[in-house]
Amino acid sequence: MPKSSKIAYLPYPFIIAHLVVCFALLPRFQYFIEADFTSYATIARKYAAFDFFNAVNAYWSPLISWLMTPFLMVDVSAIYAFRWIVILFGAGVIWQIYKLMENQAVHPILKAGGLAATASYTVYFSLYYSMPDILPVFFLLLYFRLHSTLFLSKQKAVFVGLIGAIAYFSKAYCFPFILLHFFTVLLFLGWTDREKLVQNGKKAAWFLGSFLVFSSFWIVPISLKSNVVTIGSSGAFNYMLKMRNPSSDKLTFPMDYGLIAPPNASATSIWENPPSDLGAWNEQDYFRGNSFFVQAKIFLKNVFGLGKTLNYYNPFFYVLLLFSIIYCLSLLISKKNKAMKDNIFQVSLFACLYPSGYLMVFFTERYLWLLFVLLVVLLVLASNLIYKRLDLHSWQLIFIALGIFAVSAFAPLDRLRNLADRPAKKAEILFEDARIIQTVIPPSAKIAVNRGWMSGNTIAFLNDYQFYGESSPYRSEKHFQSDLQRFDIEYLILSNFEKSSMVEGCPEILGDKIPGTKIFWLKDF
Fold it and tell me: Which of 188, 275, 369, 398 is at 20 to 30 A from 450, Cα to Cα?
């Protein structure tokens, strides 16, 4: 294999390409904001204003809000602060994938193919989603790279524990996942080399202790505020939503229950800190239960959906799955390429454990892109085994590297192109509508909508309103009117307006500025 000092510079062209493409396209995609982003941003604003009591809540992980806070303190737009952070961590993911392959005796051409494929994912997920899932991907990759070093010394064990805790700060799911992975590794080590496990037991304890101590820096404040020991409330919240309606392909979010007051005076919407008591919401005739059979049905449905998602994002997924099965069988009869096979096993184990928690409840593609980049790594490692076995030439490796890039990058780049052509225009129009609405509704107003929870939340965030939600499709107009009175809603935004007695006598203040939209001032409601 050719060796050169130039190999050390291998990741930089891909990192630079990621940064150039993302910052060039950023103005086009700045309009993609969702309720997750608005919650992280309003929480960051509270940190910037030293309103720590309202900033701390168990639902949203704190790291992205902490990172946004210095930008907001110097009046940088929350949208750009968020995007800059996400884009930079996307570059960090490329670096982590390079480091993951660096010591694996992988041919540089194959590494280049893997880095190019990874860059296609980082560009897509940095630009389209206004959610910080790139942060846990970065820290989990760092944890995975370093987790084997925790057995070298007490200091390394403590450092890996710190990295695990930071991953938890970026997403609560990382806490149980890291524990699951850690104990799985210990069990495997006990099975294969019990003597080594005994020798390194104290270092393993140092890791576990430091991970729990560092994690407690967040667990303690959210537990004190919640009056219950918790690592976060989002997992339990989503589980209860799913169990209310297990047959649904999506979670039934609180906006389906009518108007709900935001949790504090500076919150954009209910979504900043949803109530933990679902019983406080209006009861619906949803299926309820937590039986083994209901959970099994959800799990199997999610497994099927996971396979379809992975197949869409990487057509070689099932080929790779078959290869992995054959490889595992070969472990029993062959001792060749032991180091490389061990690397493949470790990556496969990490990748298989990662979605296990999501499969119990609900997942979307943005939860899984750690899995996508790990599949890229597996493709590279598997290709390197083939290269060594067949003694391929460089020109043949170039074709393999291009193949790795092609099968991995087509889906994210194609989706990015389609999104830039269509939904981006719709999102941009919503920003323009928000500017127009700002001319007729003053800041700090209480608003509600008759339909379009996401658009109502976006308008509220951009114009500094308090958004109480939308009329529930399960409730009558009379119930909606009662909600408006109960919460003293000041302005009602109606989309696809149809004449209604509900707003009879209330002045309409928007006129024809936004076709199909009417705004009523409920001053005498």
Answer: 275
Residue with tokens 């454990």: 353
pLDDT tens for 319-357 read 666 666 666 556 555 556 666 677 778 888 899 899 999
Q: Which helix (H) or strand (E) holds 447?
A: strand 446-449
Q: What is the pLDDT of residues 432-464, one digit of tens each?
A: 999 999 999 999 999 999 888 888 999 999 999
- Please give the helix or strand (H or E) that residue 448 lies within, else none: strand 446-449
Measured CA to CA in angstroms, residue 48 lies from 43, 78, 191, 471 at distances of 9, 12, 50, 33
What length is written for the chain? 525
Distance CA 31, CA 264 (A): 26
CB 123 within 8 A of CB 18: yes
Q: Contact 255/453 with Cβ under 8 angstroms?
A: yes
* Location of structure tokens 């979307």: 364
37 and 131 Cβ atoms separated by less than 8 Å: yes
DSSP state, residue 492 = E
Supply the pLDDT for residue 333. Answer: 53
Within 8 A by CB and 6+ apart from 492, the residues are 447, 448, 449, 450, 484, 503, 506, 519, 520, 522
- Taking the model in full, what pTM does it have? 0.91
pLDDT cut 70: percent of the chain above it: 87
Q: Give the number of other CB atoms < 10 A from CB of residue 289.
A: 10
- In order of 105, 309, 313, 384, 397, the CA distances from 380 in angstroms are 11, 20, 16, 6, 11
- Three-state SS for 297? helix
Question: Distance from first CA to last CA of the chain, Å, rounded?
Answer: 78
Regarding beta strands 446-449 and 466-470, do their DSSP bridges make them parallel or antiparallel, or are they unpaired?
Answer: parallel
Residue for token pair 């309003």: 42
Which is higher by pLDDT, 250 or 47? Answer: 47
Rounded CA separation 116/128 (Å): 19
